[in-house]
């Protein structure tokens, strides 16, 4: 510290000397000249005094009668006069120099005041400098402590990473063993299923042969009004249907309603194929009007007709289209695409121009969904966020950010207060729209591709994941129910209207139907040409929950009924279909795919 003070003092002295040199050197010559003038004045005073004495002596000599010195006296008088003039001039110059000295003294006093102010400021700066040096010293010590703490945390992190790697290795080993056990279990189940199928096929063949014989007997006896020649199966059929429907002449489709047909089929244990074959065999349909089984299914012979006609086709987005959803109250469709926009389309007006374009996302849209009133639309994006718009004024109301991976799905929970989102960061987050904040995070351990909620209160959240599991989350008790394992990673989920059944599209090119009351897979839908198009391909229930639709990589849309029959294959896309959505209010089907287009299908 003493060395630094010595440096500052030397610097101050050097600056003062430089200032004196600049301010005093300009007046040094004047001061020296003034000193010379003062000395000269003193000399002249002495000479004047001497001359005065000589003058007095001469005057006294003249008064006493001296005559020879008149000329000398006159000369001395002249000399005295010139000395007096010179003395006067010197006095004048002395006055000027004195005034100059006074001015210089005033300036010097001002400079002294300035120097004192500078010295005071310098003292304050030195005090501040000392204080700052002390703070720097404290910060250095704090930094050293933080470095030590950081090193400790890095060591702990390394240790945790090693432990995590070890646990991951153990997990992979357990998963491999679990996979092997599952494969063995599936093999055993497959063998059991094959045996059961063989037994069922044998029973069905016997039952079908018996039914054919009974129907042939019934046709050969035109006046049969008694039940003596009919089998118990035929008797059950007649009890569930009017005799006129089956006996006495050709019967048209208009004579049957779906409840009657289903009751008769259930009573005698027939499936759709056996029922239609029996009607052909019994001669209930004329030869020239008979249609194939596939045609009857496609035209809704056994239920509601399928939307096989292209009602509207339009280019929805600039790039690939990812999501589509019908409004619950209007004939309006919302689509989302890789061009970062959500667009609303008024299908009721057959318009190919968007009713609204909702912007705000900085990356591609992955899913869209309406609330139950159709007033709000919820969209998720690859920019790690979800957004809420109002349909009436097309304004962005909320932006939900907090995930560290792309958000794949979002649904309303406790409308319109809360929203749940699922992301590739392996978490589900529940958001309160009143405070626009995340109020709960659920750690799934695997990327979430889709999710659904069981009711408007969202008491149960069902999520489908990359690790092939369907997870169930009860938000009232904050407990997780047993997971359901699928054979491959899950691309989408959809609930029936009564929330009793769940469909799950799986990457092994199948669609699974689950009964949520048992948490069991009760049916599998597949076809040799059906291929799931991508990891976020969306399947959909129709409004009645009796039919299932899903797009394929070959550009077709496959429609099954819940009994497992493929009823229709819709063409209309030239590339893979990413998502389909069935209108909740009518029999319209919307689809989007990689060719940017949205296609609307209606009944023919």
UniProtKB/TrEMBL annotation:
Residues 222-236 have a biased composition (Low complexity). One of its GO terms (biological process) is autophagosome assembly. InterPro entries: ATG16, Autophagy-rel_prot_16_dom, WD40/YVTN_repeat-like_dom_sf, WD40_PAC1, WD40_repeat_CS, WD40_repeat_dom_sf, WD40_rpt. GO terms for cellular component: Atg12-Atg5-Atg16 complex; autophagosome membrane; phagophore assembly site membrane. SMART domains: WD40. This is Autophagy-related protein 16 isoform X2. The gene is LOC108049068. The lineage of its organism: Eukaryota, Metazoa, Ecdysozoa, Arthropoda, Hexapoda. SUPFAM superfamilies: WD40 repeat-like (SSF50978). WD repeats lie at residues 314-355, 358-399, 400-441, 458-483, 570-604. It holds the Pfam family WD40. Residues 214-252 are annotated as: Disordered. Belongs to the WD repeat ATG16 family. Keywords: Coiled coil, Repeat, WD repeat. Gene3D superfamilies: YVTN repeat-like/Quinoprotein amine dehydrogenase (2.130.10.10). GO terms for molecular function: protein-membrane adaptor activity.
């Amino acid at each position: 510290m003493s060395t630094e003070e010595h440096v500052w003092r030397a610097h101050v002295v050097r600056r003062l000397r430089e200032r004196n040199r600049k301010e005093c050197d300009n007046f040094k010559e004047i001061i020296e000249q003034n000193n010379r003038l003062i000395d000269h004045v003193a000399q002249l005073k002495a000479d004047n005094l001497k001359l005065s004495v000589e003058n007095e002596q001469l005057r006294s000599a003249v008064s006493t009668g001296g005559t020879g010195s008149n000329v000398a006296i006159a000369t001395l008088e002249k000399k005295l006069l010139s000395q007096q003039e010179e003395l006067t001039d010197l006095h004048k110059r002395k006055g000027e120099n004195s005034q100059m000295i006074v001015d210089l003294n005033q300036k010097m006093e001002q400079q002294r005041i300035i120097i004192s102010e500078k010295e005071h400021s310098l003292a304050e700066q030195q005090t501040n400098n000392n204080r700052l040096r002390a703070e720097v010293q404290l910060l250095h010590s704090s930094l050293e402590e933080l470095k030590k703490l950081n090193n400790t945390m890095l060591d702990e992190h390394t240790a945790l990473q090693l432990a995590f790697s070890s646990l991951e290795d153990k997990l992979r080993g357990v998963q491999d063993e679990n996979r092997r056990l599952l494969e063995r279990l599936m093999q055993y189940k497959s063998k059991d299923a094959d045996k059961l199928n063989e037994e069922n096929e044998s029973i069905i063949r016997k039952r079908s042969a018996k039914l054919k014989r009974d129907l042939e007997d019934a046709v050969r006896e035109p006046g049969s009004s008694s039940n003596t020649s009919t089998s118990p199966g035929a008797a059950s059929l007649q009890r569930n249907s009017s005799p006129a429907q089956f006996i006495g002449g050709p019967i048209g489709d208009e004579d049957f309603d779906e409840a009657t047909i289903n009751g008769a089929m259930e009573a005698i244990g027939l499936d759709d194929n056996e029922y239609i074959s029996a009607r052909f065999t019994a001669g209930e349909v004329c030869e020239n009007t008979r249609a194939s089984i596939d045609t009857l299914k496609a035209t809704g012979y056994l239920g509601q007709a399928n939307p096989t006609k292209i009602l509207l086709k339009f280019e929805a987005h600039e790039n690939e289209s990812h999501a589509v959803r019908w409004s619950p109250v209007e004939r309006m469709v919302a689509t989302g695409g890789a061009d970062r926009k959500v667009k609303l389309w008024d299908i009721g007006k057959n318009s190919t121009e968007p009713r609204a374009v909702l912007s705000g996302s900085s990356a591609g849209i992955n899913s869209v969904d309406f609330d139950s009133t159709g007033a709000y639309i919820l969209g998720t994006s690859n920019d790690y966020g979800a957004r809420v718009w109002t349909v009436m004024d097309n304004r962005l109301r909320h932006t939900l950010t907090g995930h560290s991976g792309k958000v794949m799905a979002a649904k309303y929970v406790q409308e319109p207060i809360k929203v749940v989102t699922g992301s590739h960061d392996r978490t589900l987050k529940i958001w309160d729209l009143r405070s626009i904040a995340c109020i709960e995070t659920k750690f799934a351990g695997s990327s979430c591709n889709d999710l659904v909620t069981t009711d408007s209160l969202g008491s149960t959240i069902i999520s489908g994941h990359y690790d092939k599991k369907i997870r169930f989350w009860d938000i009232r008790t904050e407990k997780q129910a047993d997971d359901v394992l699928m054979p491959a990673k899950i691309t989408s989920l959809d609930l029936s209207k009564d929330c009793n059944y769940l469909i799950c599209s799986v990457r092994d090119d199948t669609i699974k139907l689950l009964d949520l009351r048992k948490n069991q897979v009760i049916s599998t839908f597949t076809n040799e040409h059906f291929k799931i198009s991508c990891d976020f391909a969306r399947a959909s229930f129709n409004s009645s929950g009796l039919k299932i639709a899903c797009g394929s990589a070959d550009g077709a849309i496959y429609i099954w009924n819940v009994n497992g029959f493929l009823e229709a294959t819709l063409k209309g896309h030239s590339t893979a279909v990413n998502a389909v959505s069935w209108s909740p209010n009518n029999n319209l089907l919307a689809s989007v795919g990689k060719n940017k287009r949205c296609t609307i299908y209606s009944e023919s």
